[in-house]
RNA helicase
Amino acid sequence: KNSTSDYIEVDELEKAPQSEQKKWEKDQMASAVFKFGAKDASKGDEYELLLEDQIDFIQALQMPGSKDKLKKEPELTEVEMKKLTIEETKRSLPIFPFRDDLIQAVQEHQVLIIEGETGSGKTTQIPQYLHEAGFTADGKKIGCTQPRRVAAMSVAARVAQEMGVKLGNEVGYAIRFEDCTSERTIIKYMTDGTLHREFLSEPDLQSYNVMIIDEAHERTLHTDILFGLVKDIARFRPDLKLLISSATLDAQKFSEFFDDAPIFRIPGRRFPVDIYYTKAPEADYVDACVISILQIHVTQPLGDILVFLTGQEEIETCQELLQDRLRRLGSKVKELIVLPVYANLPSDMQAKIFDPTPPGARKVVLATNIAETSLTIDNIIYVIDPGFAKQNHFNSRTGMESLMVVPISKASANQRAGRAGRVAAGKCFRLYTAWSYKHELEDNTVPEIQRINLGNAVLMLKALGINDLVHFDFLDPPPHETLVLALEQLYALGALNHHGELTKLGRRMAEFPVDPMMAKALLASEKYKCSEEIVTITAMLSVNSAIFYRPKDKIIHADTARKNFNHLGGDHLSLLNVYNQWRDTDYSTQWCYENFIQSMKRARDVREQLVGLMQRVEIEIVSNINETVNIRKAITAGYFYHVARLSKGGNYKTAKHNQTVTIHPNSALFEELPRWILYHELVFTTKEFMRQVIEIESKWLLEVAPHYYKPKELEDSTNKKMPKTIGRTTMTD
Ligand code: CDP
Ligand code: MG
């Protein structure tokens, strides 16, 4: 049972003998919980209610010694008030004393593994050190990859600032659909996926003197593949310096992979972090987060809070709940600045998390996994960790890939906790029990390459001329069946011939930095004479979750506005409606505001890029807006795997594997229930939901994928909609 291990620090948990634990527990019970409650009762009902809700937390916060420990630390306000100059900040980073050693090590070795705790200055400083040491003297670049878009952008901005140059000149970044570099750029941050694509145009990375594969521990699919690619390049280009930089203890593994490359360790500097667990599992962790934030805010000394949530929607919910409660508390509490950060957040908003907190106030950052290692926010003293993250999972048996919220690993949990101890002793509140930490969390996160669809990666590798994927130099090889399935899918899409070689179509598909299915739909739009529409739809889908804005206090208005865009052909067409109406207002911001639409500027940027790529593969942009059948056929030509047919009870079954799936309630087709539908993606919450669906006719499948579907599999091709009068519960197939 979990009852004995609540609120014990992880280290203690491993070693404390039973008797000691019992004694400790008794101390806990006798501690000042009730005094605490009474003391603050005068502050008002709202507050007292919170205390009741979260009595376990109060207990944790009142843990004997924890208060004293905090007292001994320098007053946090002082830390905050002391604004360092850029130069002082640079000198204060743990990496700074090792500057010269590091430069020397790079000069002496071609490949170097760098290990240093998050926040030690690897990402921002190493490129600058190497630049200062002359590694860019000949005009060639230092490249640095990041698994996340936000990190690439914000780190580049920071380094440009430190160097006193304009972002996009000497220091720039490149991410998918956005290139903020110039001829003058010598330090270039980019996502790992972007470098992956750069190999297509520059297979030997000739324009770089140094390549840093950063955040290697994240083990994203692209980073994993880059390992194999850069290892190969290093053999041909003895002048290219290769740095693999990692925050955790995988360094040994990286070293072995890179022929025993030396490891350069930057000693960590970390303050202790007390870890607390909840007594019982939290049913609603977003709510628990809100309560914990307030709890910390009213009971704990100043110092900023970092909260880990799984995605934009959750962050928005949390933000609204929190702001609502803060409003009700009014001037009873100090100022609390609430700042979200997630991938789709506009970059000026993202930048706000780095602004210093004003004296006397506290900041709370609501972040996705992005803040686990990629971004370092100064002055974080408190971390709240609900223990979940969003991950893509691919089932190679059913060929289904689904985004789902999953428990994090112990390694992740400890990284998150570590974020609290950078500037002073910190506290991490885990919204799960010590028991589940110990028994339910995996030790390490499974690398992406072993759990996602490899279609994209395989297409890229084939385009690079790497034909024998089974013998590609993987750090950890993907499961054989996933690789085979990717090959099969690419074959069905027409990207590979039956020898597994890239076809002409496949080569054109590889030009697009999108999923192979999407690339195929883009190319198919030529035949169906609707490239204009498919380009728009693709752009909209690539920012999709962020388009419809749904503020808590205006949900009805927002939903009504959204419904006005609905197209009965399906959600792709609704998105097309949104874009075209916006275009017709001459891209009006006011229009977006009135219609609860956001992120359109990004959609427009993406769209422009896509138009450019279409020109590169010589597809004319032509419009065929009134022929939605053609538009839907073009989409089907790419997404014919993602097809489901209506089954009992308003559910659907996937066409090939008979898996149960359901239309997402947000869909325009949620109540329509067409017989055959195509979905863009699956999201698993309580069940497998299909997000973004269109109605199709089964006979189109034979037209667009005759080698994949047999008429018999699609025998019901009447294509009539089910009469609406038949309720979903009585419906039979
Ligand atoms: O890569 P690593 O985790 O070792 O550290 P880093 O990202 O280079 O961060 C070093 C310092 O730069 C931290 O103190 C960050 O707070 C600061 N930084 C910043 O102020 N703004 C950014 N956009 C990125 C980093
Ligand atoms: Mg870093």
